[in-house]
Structures are given as structure tokens and as C-alpha cells.
Amino acid sequence: MRILITNDDGISAPGLAVLEEIARDVAGPDGEVWIVAPAFEQSGVGHCINYVKPSMISQMGERRFAIEGSPADCVLAGLGDIVPGDVDLVLSGVNRGNNAAENTMYSGTIGAAIEAALQGVRGIAMSQFYGPQNVNLDNPFEAASATGADCVRRLLAGAEWGGDTYKMFYNVNFPPCPADKVKGLAAVAQGYRGDGRMGVHPQTAPSGRKYLWIQGSAQGEPTAPGTDVKANVEGWVSVTPMRCDLTDHSAIKGLRDVLDAYDG
């Protein structure tokens, strides 16, 4: 098996080392793990691509490359130029912090999995929820390290990946607890915190110029039953199937009633 891994925290991030261990476990001794990750942190860039400027590639070691670009750029570079032959799986992460609920829409970690799916390659985004039970551990990624490879194997063996149009990809969030407190893997929907929107914090520099810091909101607020954040805070690894189709299909019929007739 040939696996491409990336992230949005940057090529030197500790979570990428955790993901490399997961990928090597899944690939096995005869497999290949290729690392193509951003040269600098790209958190919050979503599915951004460097469409109007080139991305410099630097080889950092055997099968290890840094890209001056986004996570989606890294996937494009890996699939289109760096990795010889077909890639069987793209893994993105392990992100430092959760990418559940509203965070999903901002995440560069998710953006890499989206690009994999658009390219017709199986993609899994993986993120480690932080909280009081794990933030001060010697390895805050303990839950991801302990359960990540098993999660990937189970998805590869039995989960749905196809589709006539947009392919499936998966969003995995590991709970904010030590490994021995993880209860298992839960299939859940994307949640909605309600207060999970990003905001701005204005500040004035000594020069008198105004700056804005983008800031998030409280991360531990549970979402509805059967959704990601609630499962995570209760000790479960959340696994959410996703597609790139953003259409609300349930609203189409009602919308037709207020617009002009169309029979295409």
C-alpha cells in the first residue's frame, strides 16, 4: 500500500510524526509512506489552493517533502508530481485540536481530505481533541496513537468510499482523554455548537495602527446526540462520512415553488 500523508500544522508538527507512525502501521513493511506537508503552519486555510502563484518544493529526506502552500496544494503536489505511481490512501493530520462541528468548515486538515476525494483517492482527516484530561500528558496525542491505525484499517475494510459523482471521505476526531479512557469508534454526524463561529479581536499597535486577531470560541460545548463533539467529550472517537456536495437536497423542492419552472 502506498500512503500519502500531510497536515495543516506544518512539516515539523508533532501530530505529523504521530500520523507517520499510524500510516507505517497501516502500510506494513512492504508499503510506502510519502510525506508531503506545508513548510509553514496553514491552520484555518480550509480547502484553499495556490491557484495564482507557484509552490516551491523542498525535499527534506527520503520520501519527505515540504511545500510552500496549503494542505490541498500538498495533496495536488503529491498525487500529480512527487509520488511515483498510484496512491492508495491520503491521510491528513493528526491535527493539534479538534476539527469537529463548525471547525470542520475552516480546517486545512479537512481541506486535504477534500482534495483527495476530488482526485478520486480515499482520504481521511484525523484530529486530536484537546481538553483537561490530555493537554498535560507527555503525549497529548495518546488517544490518536492508540486507536488511529485500527480506525483506518476498519474504514478501508468496510466503509463506503464510492459515489457516482463526489466521492466519500472521512473526518475522524480523537477524544480529549488518555488512551485507556477511549470507549471506541462512533459513526456520527457533523455537530453544531451554535456558538462555534470565528470572531475577531481588534488591537491597536504602539504605532497606532489597528490589527485584528481571528479567534475561536469554547471548544468543549457538547453538540446534539449522535454528533461529533458530544461523542468526543464522552470519550468516543468520532467518525463522520462526508462528501464535497454542499447542496441541501431537502430544500430543492420548496425552492422550486418560489422560482421559475425548470425541467432540466
TrEMBL record:
InterPro entries: SurE, SurE-like_Pase/nucleotidase, SurE-like_sf
Cofactor annotation comment: Binds 1 divalent metal cation per subunit.
Role: Nucleotidase that shows phosphatase activity on nucleoside 5'-monophosphates.
Family: Belongs to the SurE nucleotidase family.
A molecular function GO annotation: 3'-nucleotidase activity
Reaction(s) this enzyme catalyzes, per UniProt: a ribonucleoside 5'-phosphate + H2O = a ribonucleoside + phosphate
Entry binding sites for a divalent metal cation: D8, D9, S43, N95
Cofactors: a divalent metal cation
Gene: surE
Annotated protein name in UniProt: 5'-nucleotidase SurE
SUPFAM superfamilies: SurE-like (SSF64167)
Subcellular location: Cytoplasm
Keywords: Cytoplasm, Hydrolase, Metal-binding, Nucleotide-binding
HAMAP family attached to this UniProt entry: SurE (MF_00060)
First-level EC class: hydrolase
